[in-house]
Write a structure and sequence with these properties.
Blueprint lengths: L2 H6 L11 H42 L9 H9 L2
Helix pairs in contact: 2-3
Protein backbone atom coordinates (compact mmCIF):
# COMPACT_ATOMS: atom_id res chain seq x y z
CA UNK A 1 0.00 0.00 0.00
CA UNK A 2 1.21 3.47 -0.75
CA UNK A 3 -0.04 7.04 -0.44
CA UNK A 4 -1.88 6.88 -3.79
CA UNK A 5 -3.84 3.83 -2.64
CA UNK A 6 -5.04 5.79 0.37
CA UNK A 7 -5.76 8.97 -1.60
CA UNK A 8 -7.75 7.10 -4.25
CA UNK A 9 -9.70 4.85 -1.88
CA UNK A 10 -13.45 5.45 -2.08
CA UNK A 11 -16.05 4.30 0.40
CA UNK A 12 -19.71 3.74 -0.28
CA UNK A 13 -22.24 5.78 1.63
CA UNK A 14 -24.83 4.25 3.89
CA UNK A 15 -27.56 5.54 6.13
CA UNK A 16 -25.61 4.67 9.28
CA UNK A 17 -22.24 5.55 7.77
CA UNK A 18 -19.20 7.16 9.30
CA UNK A 19 -18.51 10.85 9.76
CA UNK A 20 -16.75 11.61 6.47
CA UNK A 21 -14.70 14.41 8.07
CA UNK A 22 -13.27 11.98 10.62
CA UNK A 23 -12.52 9.43 7.90
CA UNK A 24 -10.76 12.09 5.80
CA UNK A 25 -8.71 13.27 8.78
CA UNK A 26 -7.67 9.70 9.56
CA UNK A 27 -6.71 9.03 5.95
CA UNK A 28 -4.68 12.27 5.85
CA UNK A 29 -2.83 11.13 8.96
CA UNK A 30 -2.25 7.72 7.40
CA UNK A 31 -0.83 9.34 4.26
CA UNK A 32 1.60 11.40 6.36
CA UNK A 33 2.73 8.26 8.20
CA UNK A 34 3.22 6.32 4.96
CA UNK A 35 5.25 9.20 3.48
CA UNK A 36 7.42 9.35 6.60
CA UNK A 37 8.07 5.60 6.46
CA UNK A 38 9.08 5.71 2.79
CA UNK A 39 11.43 8.63 3.46
CA UNK A 40 12.97 6.83 6.43
CA UNK A 41 13.47 3.70 4.32
CA UNK A 42 15.19 5.73 1.59
CA UNK A 43 17.48 7.35 4.16
CA UNK A 44 18.29 3.96 5.67
CA UNK A 45 19.17 2.63 2.20
CA UNK A 46 21.60 5.52 1.68
CA UNK A 47 23.15 4.87 5.09
CA UNK A 48 23.53 1.16 4.36
CA UNK A 49 25.09 1.87 0.96
CA UNK A 50 27.58 4.24 2.61
CA UNK A 51 28.48 1.73 5.32
CA UNK A 52 28.91 -1.13 2.84
CA UNK A 53 31.15 1.04 0.66
CA UNK A 54 33.26 1.92 3.69
CA UNK A 55 33.41 -1.75 4.65
CA UNK A 56 34.66 -2.64 1.18
CA UNK A 57 37.37 0.05 1.36
CA UNK A 58 38.57 -1.14 4.76
CA UNK A 59 38.54 -4.80 3.69
CA UNK A 60 40.68 -4.02 0.65
CA UNK A 61 43.05 -1.92 2.78
CA UNK A 62 43.43 -4.87 5.16
CA UNK A 63 44.28 -7.16 2.26
CA UNK A 64 41.02 -9.09 2.41
CA UNK A 65 38.51 -9.51 -0.38
CA UNK A 66 35.76 -6.92 -0.45
CA UNK A 67 33.30 -7.91 2.25
CA UNK A 68 30.31 -6.28 0.65
CA UNK A 69 30.55 -7.67 -2.87
CA UNK A 70 27.51 -7.08 -5.03
CA UNK A 71 26.49 -4.17 -2.80
CA UNK A 72 24.22 -2.63 -5.41
CA UNK A 73 22.46 -5.93 -6.14
CA UNK A 74 21.86 -6.54 -2.44
CA UNK A 75 20.50 -3.05 -1.94
CA UNK A 76 18.28 -3.27 -5.01
CA UNK A 77 16.87 -6.56 -3.74
CA UNK A 78 16.23 -5.06 -0.30
CA UNK A 79 14.69 -1.95 -1.85
CA UNK A 80 11.95 -4.03 -3.46
CA UNK A 81 10.76 -5.49 -0.16
Amino acid sequence: MNRDDVINKRFSHSFYGYDMREVDEFLDELIRDIDALYKAKELDTVRIRTLLTELDKRSVQAGRPAAAENTEAKLDAAKNT
